[in-house]
């Protein structure tokens, strides 16, 4: 092996390949040779004279370098000497800012400009703050600037000629400083003066202004002073307090020190108010009592019309009065005790409404209403029957018949029945009620029914109720691309051998099996050929068409399997030297000392002497497949086969070699046996660890041994090659029991296959185990049973199998899980089920109104509903086949619940005392005879008695009477007069609810109130009071004395 070419050695220079080893040529600067010759030793140049460095010498592998560690020094071009660094040139603007840089040996210094000084770091110049020292000599303000400063002055001063002191500015010299009159200068400022009499300085400090109308000018202070309270300056200029006068409405003399006081105009007689005078500060005005206001003349009072000005509290009508107002109400309302609020008067409760049936009080009036089935006539009093059947929208869904106060609905045709609301008609479900008229599927329609077949794949035979299978395969268009097979309720597509259905749901197209796959008649889908085999064409029909690929042959021990052909054993590859078989092919290799030709078959000799003399110390002689070393005269070859020793130059006792002494070009020296190297003492030998250098050439693991080493291959799927170093693929398939069925070798591994359909590799990846197809989702629609190599689908109870689908049993049929027959069984005659998918005969039951158990083979018998609790009927229960109905006695009607009976006549009216009926049919009620809805009865009081309550009452369709119970009262009494709010009636007899005939009652008001309206009334015949009963008590109002 050429270690120099194939591996990365530790030689820093040239590598010399030798038979079985190599050596390094250390004849390069910075290195010396070692006894092992497989590496070179570094020379430490710094050990001698510091390597010639001025500064620090640092040794490196094969060389060295000098460094200058003194600050301000750098390495010169000779890479050894240290010279000064010119920091001023190297760093330029980075050092000595605001100054000049001066280079020194190993450093530099800064000289600063005027106004600057050296910083603490000494490598830059910083500004001097002159203002920090005695304010820079400035008399007022000092401003520091980079490298200098400047003086400034405050407002009102200017800088002097010395640029340090400040001098005053005379603002009066420039347009009088802005003053309107006189300007007076001061140090650093100025002020304005007003010299004219009566003028003072304004707030702006520049202009002049006069005093206000309530001020006078004070000569002594040249300022404006305020006049006394309620006083003002006289017209023109006021130069003293004597020029101040009292305001209008005040009196006094400010000149004499008398303050201005309010004048009471009401006492002076100037106001002349008609009612009341009110004095105010500086003035006065006239006032009026409640209900009046001051007129335009400001003196007299006039009445306030609260009604027109909307300041009254009346809820309805307002009437103005002198100094006040009164309230009254609209017709149908009554005034309340507060004489303000109006409330509705209930005409219905007081029997003032002439309604024939029912009276409803409204706000301010009343309305007559009629019961259901009647409507108000044109007089808005009487009620007439309503013909509901003639309305725009008929109340009945089908036929309507009018009755007095109501109507009756009837349904058209035998396929309908009246619903509980007695208006709409319900369709009769012939399929659910009574016997099923269809032997198979019954479909209810509106007013009728039809027989049908809902099971997919079936159709109804014309003019019958029989369902027969549809032969989809013999229709105009074949639904399958190849063979179509009709099955009950559907069809199945089948493919010829070599084809399979497209792998999708309900596919009908057959596709040809691709290369490497086949399908026989027994296979459901195309199967993949065993490993190592392939097909010669598409559409293969059996595994026999899976032939071995090139490099494989059929295994005689296992039919249908292909094993690798050992081309080397069969002599199929004419190698000149060594033949190496591989999976599916083979290759030629050469023995050591030979190399493979371009034809990949022939081998030629390698001339080892052509490279570094083969490692021989003296002479190298090439041989076929190898070489040998020879020594010069007086030398002999030592055991390593490379070195030569002087025949007479070694003396064991002198050299004391551990192994032996050999003569070399340099003289006698100790040598070690192969696999060992000479220690630094030059006599003893130490084992060479070949594994340290590129793992000794091992592909995987290298293990060192005394004087040698060995390679091991611990990579799974690999084994050690013949050369003892390389890891090559291990053909596991050649081992016994590698796979239970088919074994396919691969580089570094292998894989087992299972050819049997329905089987897959177990967890050990070697043996075949049955595939539980039932564990996969949606394998079967309902139940799945796993079988060896296959599975079976079954349907849940209540379903039958149709191809791969489970169809629910139709209504009236059933199927149990234990029923081996995939068909659904019909229920016993007369019985049905609650729906589809019935699971057993127990799900068959008799229709409503019948009883019987299918599991006991009983027939359906009618249930007599009337035998128990009379069927829930109020009156009579009538049993029918499968049902029953209730009926009512004469004079009663059946209600919407079809069980309850209510009377069809109104109850007897009670005849009031002192009264009689004016209609003959109503008079008969006194003898126990009833009347029917629509009858109207009138009541009349006898003699002079007065009727209270409803005079006319009608019998309604709901068998109730309109109006209220009437009664007759005497003619010689009156109802109590309405009590006034804040008042009462006299004498006490008038406070009774019923006041005796001819009693005179007086209306009285409580203290603080006065009567407005009628003061008394007398009880007359027939509950009548004399006069107009309008009166109220109003609060008295008192006027202040004028």
From TrEMBL:
SMART domains, per the entry: CCP, EGF, EGF_CA, Ephrin_rec_like
InterPro entries on file: cEGF, EGF, EGF-like_Ca-bd_dom, EGF-type_Asp/Asn_hydroxyl_site, EGF_Ca-bd_CS, Growth_fac_rcpt_cys_sf, NOTCH1_EGF-like, Sushi/SCR/CCP_sf
Pfam families, per database record: cEGF (PF12662), EGF_CA (PF07645), Ephrin_rec_like (PF07699), FXa_inhibition (PF14670), Sushi (PF00084)
Classification via PROSITE patterns: ASX_HYDROXYL (PS00010), EGF_2 (PS01186), EGF_3 (PS50026), EGF_CA (PS01187), SUSHI (PS50923)
Domain Sushi, first and last residues per copy: 920-970, 972-1035
Entry GO terms, CC: cell periphery; extracellular region
Main localization, broad class: secreted
Disulfide pattern: 774-784, 941-968
Gene Ontology molecular function, alphabetical: calcium ion binding
Protein name, UniProt field: Fibrillin 1
